[in-house]
Amino acid sequence: MNLTPYVELLRRELAVAAAAGGDEARELAERLTAPLESAIRLTLLEALSAATTEITRDLAPGSVHLRLNGRDPDFVVTPAATERPVAVDQTPTVPAAAIDEPVSSAGDKGGTARINLRLPDDLKARVEEAAARERLSVNSWLVRAAGAALGSGPTVSGPAASSGQRFTGWVR
């Protein structure tokens, strides 16, 4: 992704705004834009990095990474496994909560499976609140919780880190 058009657009917008202040303001804006180019690029990269973090959170277990290629960022998208889910429970009942999306971790030895999960209403509400707090789908949250309970699944760090830093991604 080439950031130059965005930097140039900001430079033009600054020139237009400075032109309203007269020749002295226009000249000052021209002198400032060259030294600010690095700061503008860095700010754009930080915004793109934050966006990839949010997208990765929504794509879990898929991910999006931002890499630099020279001065330009490139996106690397790793989609989740697209294996067809296998129906486990064929009963024609309507569950209190259904897991709709197939999810697999890098350690899966087989495909994914669809299950119907029946939860009491109060537990379902608490699961939905916990997933929303961590900005995960209910399915991703349940997969993570089941994996953590069994000591074998993928884990994603939550928004509250004890050290004040935040780490996101998949860990074995």
Radius of gyration based on Cα positions: 23 Å
Side-by-side strand order of the widest sheet: 1-2
| Topology order in helix (H) and strand (E) letters | HHEEEEEEHH
Structural class, by secondary structure, is alpha+beta
Shape: elongated
- Which parts are unreliable, with pLDDT below 50 for 5 consecutive residues or more? 83-107, 155-164
- Gap between N and C termini: 31 Å
- How large a portion of the residues is in β-strands, by DSSP E? 5-15%
The tally of beta strands, per DSSP, is: 6
Helix content: 40-55%
- Please tally the helical runs, counting DSSP H or I stretches of 4 or more residues: 4
Q: State mean pLDDT (0 to 100 scale).
A: 75
Main beta sheet strand tally, sense and closure: 2 strands, antiparallel
Topology readout:
Blueprint: H1 4-19, H2 23-59, E1 63-69, E2 72-78, E3 86-87, E4 97-98, E5 113-114, E6 116-117, H3 121-133, H4 138-150
Helix pairs in contact: 1-2, 3-4
Protein name: Toxin-antitoxin system HicB family antitoxin
Pfam families: HicB (PF05534)
Region (Disordered): 152-172
Describe what is shown at a glance.
This protein has helices at residues 4-19, 23-59, 121-133, 138-150, and strands at 63-69, 72-78, 86-87, 97-98, 113-114, 116-117. With 172 residues, it is α+β, with helices and mostly antiparallel strands. The strands form 3 sheets. It has a two-stranded antiparallel sheet with strand order 1-2.
